[in-house]
Specification:
It contains seven helices and 14 strands. The chain is an alpha/beta fold and 300 residues long. It has a six-stranded mixed β-sheet with strand order 5-4-3-2-1-14.
Length: 300
């Protein structure tokens, strides 16, 4: 539960439009965004960037050259924030390709940065690696194996990456384990066009995020990659969804941008009191798990 002494969280989503494979150039662009945020009269407490925010998404074999270990990547992000000379500490979430001693993951980390230090609070490794349509992630990367939750100054949080969210069981596990804030870095190409010329995948994202937020009474911070890679257009559309399922703010579809909003943690409690679906689920979860375990055993 978010502490009453700090019921509000100022969030900034930095929607990036990276030049594919140009890490240093993209990091410099993020540094410019950090400088802009640090200059605000009230800087953010939390900054969220997309999946593969500093490299681009469709790297294929180049992922092995551009991947970094978590500590190296955290240091580069922290140094970029500290270069703004901001006295204000900040938490940062960013997606990256991770080299974990020769095993490669699509990951996102959560770090806390002060004026002269940084700490990694959590690293999530993408569980569902799409291998259909334009996607071929599992050819180059290994899967994550768990859904972790972790403590922040603003309450218990979880990170899921892009397709992890499309499997409703995964965010449900995060909520049952205590997450009140779900952070979703994403790189989603536009797929399908409806009668109005809009991407079907964008509407699907909005519906999915709204449903998950309202079902579990959680805030969802969605950071979408923008730009074009090899003719494939990333749909951006970063947004923040409140615990009632309402989209509070939404970004541009094609360009880099910054979204900012203050979140009131008390809305989580209000939403859960109004629709106690998470509590209902928790009360029968053991029976459901036992039933699923039995069914899986029988299927073998």
């Amino acid at each position: 539960m978010l502490p009453d002494s700090r019921p509000r969280l100022r969030v900034a989503i930095v929607q990036t439009k990276p030049a594919k494979g140009r890490f240093a150039e993209n990091l410099a662009d993020v540094g410019d965004a950090f400088a802009q945020l640090a200059a605000w009269e009230t800087p953010p407490n939390l900054i969220v960037l997309p999946e593969a925010a500093l490299t681009g998404y469709f790297l294929e074999g180049a992922v092995y050259d551009l991947a970094r270990d978590a500590e190296q990547f955290a240091l580069e992000l922290a140094t970029s924030w500290q270069a703004t000379n901001a006295a204000h500490p900040v938490d940062i979430v960013c997606g990256f390709y991770e080299n974990a001693s020769g095993t490669y993951f699509n990951s996102a980390l959560y770090i806390r940065v002060t004026t002269d230090a940084h700490t990694i609070l959590h690293v999530h490794r993408k569980i569902f690696l799409p291998t259909y349509g334009v996607f071929d992630e599992e050819r180059f990367l290994s899967r994550g194996r768990d859904v972790g939750v972790f403590a922040t100054p603003f309450g218990t949080a979880a990170i899921l990456i892009c397709e992890d969210v499309w499997h409703s069981l995964v965010p449900t596990i995060a909520a049952v384990k205590g997450a009140r804030l779900l952070i979703v870095p994403s790189a989603s190409p536009g797929r399908g066009v409806d009668g109005d010329g809009d991407f079907v995948s964008v509407e699907r994202w909005k519906q999915t995020l709204s449903m998950l937020a309202s079902e579990h009474g959680i805030y969802i911070l969605y950071a979408g990659l923008a730009g074009f890679e090899g003719g494939k257009g990333m749909t951006g559309n970063s947004c923040i969804v409140d615990p009632h399922g309402r989209i509070v703010v939404q970004g541009d579809q094609t360009e880099a941008c910054i979204l900012a909003v203050d979140l009131d943690a008390r809305e989580i409690d209000r939403a859960r009191a109004q629709f106690p679906l998470l509590g209902d689920l928790s009360s029968v979860l053991t029976d459901l798990v036992n039933d699923l375990s039995s069914s899986l055993h029988t299927a073998r």
